[in-house]
Structure formats: C-alpha cells, structure tokens
Write a structure and sequence with these properties.
The protein is α+β, with helices and mostly antiparallel strands and 213 residues long. The protein has helices at 2-30, 114-124, 129-143, 156-159, and strands spanning 32-42, 47-55, 58-63, 70-74, 80-81, 87-88, 91-97, 107-110, 148-154, 162-167, 172-183, 203-211. The protein is built from four helices and twelve strands.
Length: 213
C-alpha cells in the first residue's frame, strides 16, 4: 500500500514540475529582448540635448544611466558628454517587451551571406559606414552561423512602442530596428523596400535589433 502511495505522490510531483516548465517556457517566449538600441546625436553645433524614451516594456540596462531621461551635451562629430564630464559614443539601452513584430515583408538570407547583405541594407537605410560597422560587429556573430535568417526591418511596430522625445527637436531622425528569426530552410517572403531620409541639420540615428525563436 505504501508503495502505491509513494508512486502516486511521485507521479503528482512530476506532473507539477512539467506544468511549471511549460508555463515558464511560455513566459520566456512571450517576452522578447530589444537588444542594444544605441542612439547617436549629431547636432550642427555643440549644445545640450535632452532625450526621453517612452517604452512599452521594461528597461533592463542603460548606459549612461537613464534617470527619467538622458541630459547630455552633444558635439557635431557625435561625441556625447554627460553632466560629470564623461564622454560616450552613443546612448545605450536594452529592454524586454511583449510586442509582436511584423514579418509580412523582409528578406531570407543565407547565414554565410549575412555580412554582405547587412552592408548593403544598412547603407540603404541611411547608416554611415561607422554606424553600420558597429551594427554588424554586434549582430554578425549571432547570425552568420545560422542556415538562414528571416529578416525584417521594423517601422511602426517598433517606433510606436519605443517612442523618442528629443529636445531640441532634431531635423532628421533615422531609426533602424532589425527583427530576425533563424530558420533551417530558405523561405519565400515579399521583399521589403528600404529607404532613408536625407541627413540634414540636427540628425539623430538609432539602431537595434531582436532575435525571435
């Protein structure tokens, strides 16, 4: 009799653990990480700039520290100086969100072709060579080992949920956010049109990305 009771208790324990694992897996899938969005500031002359981020999610890391906004001095060459005199190349943040991204258009790119694809795509999206290089160095090691990557550069699906408020107001804003899924086989997807505004006046550039599995 005791053996039967112990066996029943063990079965119940295993069942509870399995339920917990399934629930945890679901939570992990529903929460995605927006990785390394970085913000470059290029005013026409050195001036104080205030940047606020209204994000539909939870910020997990910022640098310099986001204290109800970033309040910095920006130079035309992109150098950023905080209130303590510390210099930065850009403003950095990461966060977790449950936002779904749009894959109605995009590209299916073989892993081995990722570098060449990104060089061309980021140029069309308005990034300078330096900005594109920093993007590629971060994402290429994650993508080139995959058989294929299903890639879509997000517009409103990203910008409406990570809203930027910048003072003084910039003349040009370029925000590049790449969502991608590693896939084992080549897939058909309508090709996305890539374009960017011409840089003029005070220009703000942001890039980031998200891997979906």
């Amino acid at each position: 009799m005791k053996k039967i009771v112990y066996a029943a208790l063990a079965a119940i324990g295993i069942f509870v653990v399995l339920i917990f694992i399934v629930q945890l897996s679901g939570e992990m899938e529903s929460s995605m990480s927006n990785e390394k969005p970085v913000i470059y500031l290029y005013p026409e002359q050195g001036e104080e700039v205030s940047v606020r981020l209204d994000y539909d999610g939870k910020l997990t890391c910022t640098y310099p520290e986001y204290d109800n906004g970033w309040h910095v001095t920006a130079a035309p060459d992109g150098r950023i100086t905080d209130e303590n005199g510390q210099e930065y190349n850009y403003l950095y943040w990461e966060g977790e969100t449950e936002q779904e991204y749009d894959f109605s258009e995009g590209f299916c790119v073989a892993g081995e072709d990722t570098a060449e694809f990104l060089e061309d795509a980021l140029d069309r999206l308005g990034l300078t060579r330096r900005e594109a290089n920093e993007f590629i160095v971060y994402w290429l090691p994650r993508m080139e080992q995959n058989e294929y990557n299903l890639i879509s550069f997000q517009s409103e699906a990203y910008t409406d949920h990570a809203r930027l408020s910048i003072q003084p107001e910039p003349d040009t804003v370029i925000r590049v956010f790449m969502a991608y899924k590693p896939v084992e086989n080549e897939q058909e997807i309508p090709e996305q049109t890539l374009a960017a505004p011409e840089r003029s006046g005070f220009t703000v550039v942001e890039w980031g990305g998200c891997e979906l599995r």
